[in-house]
Amino acid sequence: MSTTEADRIYRFIFEHAEVSGAEIHISNVLKGMTEFKKYPYAVARLLSECTVAVALLADYMKTKGSISLSIQSGTLIQQLNVACRNSLEVKAVAVHSVTDNEPHAFGELIGKNAVMTITAIPDEGDRYQGTVPVVGNGIADCMTEYFQQSEQLAAKFMIFADPNAPEGPEAGGVMLRVMPSDNPAKRKEDFSGFCMLLDTLKPEEVYTLPGEKVITRLFGAEGVTVYKPHDIVFRCDCSRERCLGALKALGRDDAEKVIAQNGGRVSVRCECCGRNYSFGADEIRALF
Ligand SMILES: [Zn+2]
Fold it and tell me: Which domains can be identified in the chain, with CATH numbers?
């Protein structure tokens, strides 16, 4: 997969129906997510699918801010968090107890009693949080059901991910969303027709075809306008400065203890991306 086609979202709109959509393919984002932090296959797949869903929603935000998805569960996944800015900088992390590389099913990974929430956090104004029902075989089913149940307009998601794809991790999919309409009956009929077309989408198409081709293959006969793509990047906000800030917050006495326990050189690991930062005793002592 060429890097120029991966890590992009293509928005599109139907010319004769009040329905819009977006196509996404990510690969480098997933490499960034797992560069310093390795996940078993099933966890990486779920994390990739959640990242796709959150990026699609963040790209739709009308104001500056971010969208986050959080899963709390008592099963194989204890916690999963994905956050994406509307400018499409995304980060994701999972805490889990999976010890093998088996393709554990969605229900086995997060269980029926998991609590899944979506939060829209505008830079200015009130945040909005909704509970996502845990249904079906994956995050796409959950998101589709969420829009079905909530006061928002209907949407349909198709999401695929393959952490073990031959040319590196791949994920992507398509979202369809209805728009406000004066003719809800026609819109409903249009939307259900497009949903049937979307059901024919195959993972390999998302992984290997340019986004525009995926959209025209699915909906070309219906009349669609495809917009210029938006780039998505993985960006963790950790840094040496932040780690030093955390060491400073320990206070002088505890910092000395940490230096002694670690034989004079202290490593701090970012819990999100897994990157390691290493500090000498002098550098830490200079903080106080
Ligand atoms: Zn980090």
Answer: 8-234 (3.55.30.10), 240-285 (3.90.1280.10)
- Return residues with CB closer than 5 A to ligand 1 (ion): 236, 238, 270, 272-273, 275
| Residues linked to residue 11 through DSSP beta bridges, in sequence order | 22
pLDDT at 5: 73
* Residue 74 phi, psi dihedral angles, 5° rounding: -100, 10
Q: How far apart are CA 84 and CA 63, in angstroms?
A: 13
Cα 248 to ligand 1 centre (Å): 18
Which H or E element spans position 33?
Answer: helix 28-33
62, 40 in Cβ contact below 8 A? no
Indicate left, alpha or beta for 19 from its phi (over 0: left) and psi (-120 to 50: alpha).
beta
pLDDT under 70 in the chain at which residues? 1-4
pTM above 0.85, yes or no: yes
Phi first, then psi: give them for residue 41, nearest 5 degrees.
-50, -55
Tally of CB atoms within 10 A around 188: 13
Rounded CA separation 167/38 (Å): 17
Amino acid 101: pLDDT:
95
CA 243 to ligand 1 centroid distance, Å: 10
DSSP 234-256: E-----HHHHHHHHHHH-HHHHH
CA angle 215, 216, 222 (to 5 degrees): 105
